[in-house]
Design goal:
The chain is mainly α. The protein has helices at residues 3-8, 21-37, 42-60, 67-77. Helix content is 68%, strand content 0%. The longest helix has 19 residues, at 42-60. It is globular, with a radius of gyration of 12 Å. The N and C termini lie close together (11 Å).
Length: 78
């Protein structure tokens, strides 16, 4: 899938409100991939999950959207 197509898959709830929406979406896609394809090795990538969630929490602070809401949208694409 091309970067252009990935940008188009970003949830509408994320797109218009956040200047760093693409970065949050990229993190959500990465975590979704790990959750889907490496669930049995979560101990290896749990730190990445925490780092991505902390980053997204800072970016999305003050809004009604959370990283935990964005990741399931990314999982649907896989």
């Amino acid at each position: 899938m091309s970067l252009k197509k990935l940008r188009k898959t970003m949830p509408a709830s994320l797109r218009p409100h956040h200047p760093q929406a693409e970065k949050v979406w990229a993190a959500a896609l990465a975590i979704a991939y790990l959750k889907t394809n490496a669930a049995g090795s979560m101990d290896v990538w749990a730190g990445l999950w925490e780092k991505a969630r902390d980053y997204a929490a800072r970016v999305l602070a003050g809004g009604s959207l959370s990283f935990d809401q964005v990741v399931p949208e990314a999982v649907k694409l896989l």
